[in-house]
Amino acid sequence: MSAHDILTTSSNKTITAQSLTEFCDDYLSATAFKDYAPNGLQIDGGRPIERIVTGVTACDALIDAAIADNADAIMVHHGYFWKGEPAPLTGMKGQRIRKLMQHGISLIGYHLPLDAHPVIGNNATLAAALDMTIIGALYPAETHPVGNIAICTAQNAQSLIAQITQALARIPLHIAAEYNVDTNTSNRLIERVGICTGGAQDMIEQAALMGCDAFISGEISERTTHIARELGIDYFACGHHATERGGIEALGRIIAQQFDLPVTFIDIDNPA
């Protein structure tokens, strides 16, 4: 645990897990998304919610931190019950859910709705942190785009690396569009940027198609290097976890303000 940021002070107010989920469903337009996991209430802890912990992923370490914080609910970007995973509650999955139930902690998760929200979403908060302005969708036909196009002050890759490093507290992996075998650097200016946080490295081709100078995401695959060089687009792999802290932390602030409840963002360190 590398950060423990209490957003509000203690309160005697409570809310049910269902009411909290209804508010978030509406705020995030959750029903508009066809997702890889259920959005909303995933585990009902069975008790009123007075304290909430937020985090990126509902790992065992986050559950332990929530227990130590006397939380009644955990809200995350990466929850449980993903498509294609085994259904039985055994092994690591069973241990996590058993611990939540034993301590009466509800789990609420939002995946694509938290990527796409135009104000507090992962793309939106990352763009804001990098002094970029979102101007449209990476896929123009999408009503609720999960990838965006942003503009920034024209700058070279080294300048953008410095901005990303300051905003995310980690140095991104940069693949230069104009490959130099000696330096892997370029003096070309970057002004139009595709953004999709997390594991969206394969959207780089769409970013190039949309005329972006660069594409920012979380992860990188072996093929991404060749695609960036051959399509002439700079790529910045900034970390799946690092690029997706902003949305859930911002949602926690909204909930704290809306319901006057203590919300604690807990950052479980993850270099990936």
Automatic annotation (TrEMBL):
<dbReference type="InterPro" id="IPR002678">
    <property type="entry name" value="DUF34/NIF3"/>
</dbReference>
<keyword id="KW-0479">Metal-binding</keyword>
<dbReference type="InterPro" id="IPR036069">
    <property type="entry name" value="DUF34/NIF3_sf"/>
</dbReference>
<dbReference type="Pfam" id="PF01784">
    <property type="entry name" value="DUF34_NIF3"/>
</dbReference>
<comment type="similarity">
    <text>Belongs to the GTP cyclohydrolase I type 2/NIF3 family.</text>
</comment>
<protein>
    <submittedName>
        <fullName>Nif3-like dinuclear metal center hexameric protein</fullName>
    </submittedName>
</protein>
